[in-house]
Design goal:
This protein has about 325 residues and is mainly β. It has 3 domains: about 70 residues, SH3 type barrels (Roll); about 60 residues; about 150 residues, endopeptidase fold (from Nostoc punctiforme) (Alpha-Beta Complex). Helices cover about 10% and strands about 40% of the residues. The chain contains 4 helices and 24 strands. The strands form 6 sheets. It has a 6-stranded antiparallel beta barrel. Strands 6-5-4-1-7 form a 5-stranded antiparallel sheet. A 4-stranded mixed sheet has the order 11-8-15-14, with no helix packed on it. It starts with a strand and ends with a strand.
């Protein structure tokens, strides 16, 4: 068995061993994997976090020894909780961005960390805050900016299960104080909602996992990763988790709502973000009305998705 890790900002994972094949997912910087087989210039891999399989072009592969792989799996991890932060690759002295939801080993006091033989530095533009021995990366370039997104009062209430839905229509809220951790939070609903709101207006991209393009299940998977809970990649797998609710009115922040097509197949997922509201990736990451019928799009005056089930994972 051989192993590897992604040392670029983001790379595609494909359904077949071809550049023209469907992109089924993406690896983010720091994502590790097992190599299952080699097919020409392609590797069939299985990701370490959720066991997702796909084909990775050999040009993106950075090999790890088994010892390096196991060390990486057991190291304390840092999570990027702003839109992006900058890293420097030591050998080439190249500075490059990594995106929200990216995780990598906790840097030392000088900001250095390793991914196998590759050494990286967290430049001084970023800061690290510690919470319960886990680390969150904040980019100081963004900490004081006003974000044109929805307003949700994330700090006064230590566990706001039902924030005022009227606050979901006001713009210009500063979200830089959101704290996300890589271990399960005893009350994770506030940070996971704040993390999700950072993605508003991100375009939909099949297989995507970044603010530049993301799909529905990649979005919910990253939201749960932000609180240290690893869930499967696809909606059809995520629906197997948790406990079912009887009615949409019972849902609370963090519950996942799943939607079906005419054949009864699960084709969409989103997260409940307030009573009667859902945040999901459909065309773009957006907030819509949710009821027992499904998702109602106020812009079109129609239901866009038909509800199958709501699951509570926390």
């Amino acid at each position: 068995m051989s192993y590897g890790v992604c040392i670029l900002s983001v790379v595609p994972l494909r359904a077949e061993a071809a550049e023209r094949a469907e992109m089924v997912s993406q690896l983010l910087f720091g994502d590790s994997y097992e190599v299952l087989e080699t097919e020409g210039n392609w590797l069939k891999i299985k990701t370490s976090d959720c066991g997702y399989e796909g084909f990775l072009n050999l040009k993106y592969h950075h090999a790890l020894t088994e010892e390096q792989y196991q060390e990486l799996l057991h190291q304390p991890q840092s999570l990027v909780s702003d839109f992006m932060t900058l890293l420097c690759e030591e050998k080439s002295q190249t500075v490059f961005p990594v995106f929200i939801g990216t995780s990598f080993p906790q840097p030392d006091e000088q900001g250095h960390f390793n991914l196998g033989d590759a050494v990286f530095t967290l430049p001084s533009v970023s800061s690290i805050s510690e919470t319960n021995s886990q680390f969150t990366i904040h980019n100081s370039q963004f900490k004081n900016c006003q974000l044109s997104t929805v307003n949700c009062n994330l700090t006064p209430d230590p566990c706001p299960l039902t924030p005022d839905p009227s606050q979901l229509s006001t713009v210009n809220c500063q979200l830089s104080t959101v704290n996300c951790k890589l271990t399960p939070d005893p009350c994770p609903l506030t940070p996971m909602l704040g993390f999700a709101l950072h993605f508003l207006r991100a375009p939909y991209l099949w297989g995507g996992r970044t603010p530049a393009g993301i799909d529905c299940s990649g979005f919910t998977q990253l939201i749960y990763k932000s609180i240290g809970v690893l869930i499967p990649r696809d909606a059809s797998q995520q629906v197997e988790l948790g406990n079912a609710l009887d009615f949409a009115s019972e849902a609370q922040i963090g519950d996942l709502a799943f939607f079906q097509n005419e054949e009864g197949r699960i084709v969409h997922v989103g997260m409940v973000c307030a009573p009667g509201k859902i945040i999901h990736a459909s065309g773009q990451v957006r907030i819509d009305h949710l009821d027992d019928t499904g998702i109602f799009n106020a812009g079109t005056g129609q239901y866009s998705h038909h509800l199958r089930i709501i699951k509570r994972l926390l």
